[in-house]
């Protein structure tokens, strides 16, 4: 997007975000009010805690992704030579300890050789993180995710393959649209894959996807020519 289009788009995003925040806060307020009633039993209190936690997590993810929307266009001057093996492995090590990927079987296949790219470590980490989380969600956070660093036609490549629910052609056509999500209402922000695509476009990374319902999904992130 050119700067004017990007500003207009971000204005549209910002104008709608208040609705999302208000819905989350309304849910939190409502359940806390019920839990504070004198006759509230333990199941009601547990439900209030669960809803509050889920909505706070949603708000945290929402604000984090929104903050990232303004950054990709400014990263051109912050590029450096990175080894994809190291960047991917550092993200995986963090995610092995998080609740959402704790029970996933994560397999990492390093490229035996260094795989240098000219990019930005923080933005690449966010790109990988959002796709890893998408794969985890597809497996209900307990499936198999295989991540490989290699090459495709002399281009550095990162492949993420899961054994999750897969996606239909209709979902594939919408996956990078802002606010599009297949999660239940209140559970997803619909910005993770949009932000991933924004970052990929800035650094000239092509995202290829093969997926079928009930057969899992494979993402291939193909970088510009090898350094």
Please provide a written account of the structure.
This protein has 227 residues and is of the alpha+beta class. It has two domains: 3-70, Helix Hairpins (Orthogonal Bundle), CATH 1.10.287; 78-222, Heat Shock Protein 90 (2-Layer Sandwich), CATH 3.30.565. 48% of the residues lie in helices and 19% in strands. It is built from six helices and seven strands, in the order H-H-E-H-E-E-H-E-E-H-H-E-E. The strands form two sheets. A five-stranded mixed beta sheet has the order 2-4-5-7-6, covered by helices on one side. Strands 1-3 form a two-stranded antiparallel sheet. The longest helix has 33 residues, at 3-35. The chain is elongated and about 65 Å long. The model has no long low-confidence stretch (mean pLDDT 81).
Q: Distance between the terminal alpha carbons, to the nearest Å? A: 26 Å
Write down the overall mean pLDDT: 81
The fourth-level CATH homologous superfamily of the largest domain is: Histidine kinase-like ATPase, C-terminal domain
Q: Which residue ranges are poorly predicted, with pLDDT under 50 across at least 5 consecutive positions?
A: none
Tell me the overall shape: elongated
CATH architecture of the largest domain: 2-Layer Sandwich
Count of domains: 2
Strand order of the largest sheet: 2-4-5-7-6
Helix content: 40-55%
**CATH topology tier name of the largest domain:** Heat Shock Protein 90
CATH class of the largest domain: Alpha Beta
Largest sheet: 5 strands, mixed
Task: Decide which structural class fits the backbone.
Answer: alpha+beta
Percentage beta strand: 15-25%
Number of strand elements:
7
H/I helix tally: 6
């Amino acid at each position: 997007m050119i700067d004017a289009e990007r500003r207009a788009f971000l204005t549209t995003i910002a104008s709608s975000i208040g609705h999302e925040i208000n819905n989350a806060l309304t849910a939190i307020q409502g359940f806390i009010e019920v839990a504070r009633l004198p006759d509230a039993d333990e199941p009601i209190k547990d439900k209030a805690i669960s809803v509050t936690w889920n909505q706070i997590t949603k708000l945290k993810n929402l604000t984090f992704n929104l903050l990232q929307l303004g950054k990709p266009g400014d990263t051109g001057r912050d590029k450096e030579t990175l080894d994809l093996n190291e960047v991917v492995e550092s993200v995986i090590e963090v995610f092995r300890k998080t609740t959402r990927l704790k029970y996933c079987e994560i397999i990492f296949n390093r490229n035996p050789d260094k795989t240098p790219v000219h990019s930005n470590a923080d933005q690449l980490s966010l790109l990988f993180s959002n796709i890893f989380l998408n794969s985890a969600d597809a497996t209900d956070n307990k499936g198999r995710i295989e991540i490989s660093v290699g090459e495709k036609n002399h281009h550095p490549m990162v492949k993420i393959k899961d054994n999750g629910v897969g996606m239909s052609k209709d979902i594939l056509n919408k996956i990078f649209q802002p606010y599009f999500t297949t999660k239940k209402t209140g559970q997803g922000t619909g910005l993770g894959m949009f932000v991933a695509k924004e970052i990929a476009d800035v650094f000239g990374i092509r995202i290829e996807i093969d997926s079928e319902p009930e057969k899992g999904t494979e993402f291939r992130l193909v970088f510009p020519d090898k350094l």
